[in-house]
């Protein structure tokens, strides 16, 4: 026989376990807030842009379409060179950083839009000013080294990174973390509520008996308290009399 559950049953379970659901939701949200505000280290980001564009000569006053296509093809190569140890080792030396080229490469993201000759270099670091210095130094070192590595002079710094007055971290996203924790806590609380309800097979009320047997209730025996019960008191008095007779 298949068991079915109605919306009323779902609402009844949620109402019955509302304290448990709210407790788990609040605890998970508070934990995410504490971790986001006091445990996780803020990460700042700085970006600089470079333009890949072949310089025109005196005889050539217009940029040919083939030159643009060549520059676009070179960008993929430039993206690899920017994060190579050849460039990053000199950046570490110039800024006297206590890191390795491999670790510094993980802090750098190089990207460009489709069919765009502008390359964006983004750097993330725990200190805002250091992220700015690294981004600008990477762009400058790359501009100088690409002349020897590729034998071309088509890289210009378009927009250097600048340090704002009140820098704001890009990570962690505190509000997003709290929202995710709230949703997860709510889902866990609801799931745990239905699990406990499924595992609870005890019969507590006459309605449980009616639902279990599928038969109508004709009557039930009320609970008799000690204050209204005379039977236990009578039994105790008889036992007391018997003990007195035996002692005599």
Automatic annotation (TrEMBL):
InterPro entries referenced in this protein's UniProt entry, alphabetically: Bact_polysacc_biosynth/exp, GNVR, LPS_length_determ_N
Record domain Polysaccharide chain length determinant N-terminal: where: 3-93
Compartment(s) where it occurs, according to its Swiss-Prot or TrEMBL record: Cell membrane
A Pfam match: GNVR
Membrane-spanning segments: 18-40, 175-196
Keyword list, A-Z: Cell membrane, Membrane, Transmembrane, Transmembrane helix
Protein topology in the membrane: Multi-pass membrane protein
Domain (Tyrosine-protein kinase G-rich): residue spans on this chain: 142-195
UniProt superkingdom: Bacteria
Transferase is among the record's keywords: no
Phosphoprotein listed as a keyword: no
Family membership noted in the UniProt record: Belongs to the CpsC/CapA family.
Protein name: YveK family protein
Species of origin: Ureibacillus suwonensis
């Amino acid at each position: 026989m298949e068991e079915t559950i109605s919306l009323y049953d779902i609402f009844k379970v949620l109402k019955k376990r509302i304290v448990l659901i709210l407790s788990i939701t609040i605890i998970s949200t508070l934990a995410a807030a504490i971790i986001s505000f006091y445990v996780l280290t803020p990460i700042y980001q700085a970006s600089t842009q470079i333009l890949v564009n072949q310089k025109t000569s005196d005889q050539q006053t217009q940029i040919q379409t083939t030159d643009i296509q060549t520059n676009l093809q070179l960008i993929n190569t430039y993206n690899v060179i920017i994060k190579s140890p050849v460039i990053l080792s000199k950046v570490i030396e110039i800024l006297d950083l206590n890191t390795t080229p491999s670790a510094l490469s993980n802090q750098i993201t190089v990207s460009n839009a489709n069919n765009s000759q502008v390359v964006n270099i983004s750097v993330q670091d725990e200190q805002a000013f250091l992220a700015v210095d690294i981004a600008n130094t990477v762009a400058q070192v790359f501009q100088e080294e690409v002349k020897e590595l590729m034998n071309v002079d088509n890289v210009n710094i378009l927009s250097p990174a600048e340090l704002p007055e009140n820098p704001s971290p890009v990570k962690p996203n505190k509000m997003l973390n709290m929202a995710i924790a709230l949703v997860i806590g709510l889902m866990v609380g609801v799931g745990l509520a239905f699990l406990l309800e499924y595992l609870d097979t005890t019969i507590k009320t006459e309605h449980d008996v009616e639902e279990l047997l599928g038969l109508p209730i004709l009557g039930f025996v009320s609970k008799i308290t000690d204050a209204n019960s005379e039977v236990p008191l009578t039994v105790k008095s008889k036992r007391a009399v018997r003990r007195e007779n035996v002692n005599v």
